[in-house]
Amino acid sequence: MRTLRDTLDGLPETQARIARMIVADPEWAVQTGVELLAERAGVSAPTIVRFARAVGCEGVRDMKLKLAGSLALGTPYVHRSVRPTDAPGEVVRNVVGSVTSMLAEWQSSIDPARIEEAVAAIRTAGRVDTAGTGATSHFLAHDLHARLFRLGIPSNSFADTHLQLTAASCLTRGDVLVAISYVGRMPALLRTVAVARRAGATVVAITRTGTPLHRAADILLAVDVPGDATMRVGTDATIAQLIVIEILSVRLGLALGGRATSRLAAIHDLLQSEQLDSDDAPALGGG
User: Fold this and answer.
1) Cα(first)–Cα(last) distance of the chain, in Å?
2) Which of 25, 87, 119, 137 has the fewest Cβ atoms nearer than 10 Å?
3) How far is the C-alpha of 22 from the C-alpha of 199, rounded, in Å?
4) Could you tell me the CATH number of the domain that includes residue 102?
């Protein structure tokens, strides 16, 4: 934000108009697609891309990430899209709108080729370990583990860092470690990744581009979303990682075909017969 304000006078008129638009409503600019940015500024979409590069960013997505980061560092708000004066209905609309806008923008950056690389590695693996460090990453690792064994893929997930390290040492060539960390620089997880790589396993990382975890991995499934104003791993990051896991699971199920479908059908029928997965199931405890 400060960079845009400081350079306004030295920019050509078209670029200055874009900069003034962003400075006037930075929260909106972070959440808005290229076409709408161009429409409001009265320029073409390629002009927005050129502007982003002119102010030192790799592209529009990088510009938005940096803009969101500057807002998070200086904002007094508990959420980047919510103002202190917002009414309850506005809070609902702005929080939900922020997430949906993030997803719409982030979707265009997902690389299907990297998804397919991960699917190919996991599908043929003798064993797949999932690991994360921190509350959110642990939850996501266990969620992926639960999806994998339902598909018939041998998998493990350990919350204890010592067990993660020990398990990684037991991996072999052809096995896979899926390491999950939005922050991407947790020392214990990076040690586990290093051990897995030495053992010959393929490492799939669900993290941001450019983190130490990304650099240590064989396959990156990127979750480059705006930072949170108050939490290191906010709602946007959690949802984006969950969606990566969902996409990965769906593609694995499709790739495995009838074998996976029959297993999932059998699990569904079992839970239904035991009345554990039905709206008509009795309350736990018999009360």
Assistant:
1) 58
2) 87
3) 49
4) 1.10.10.10
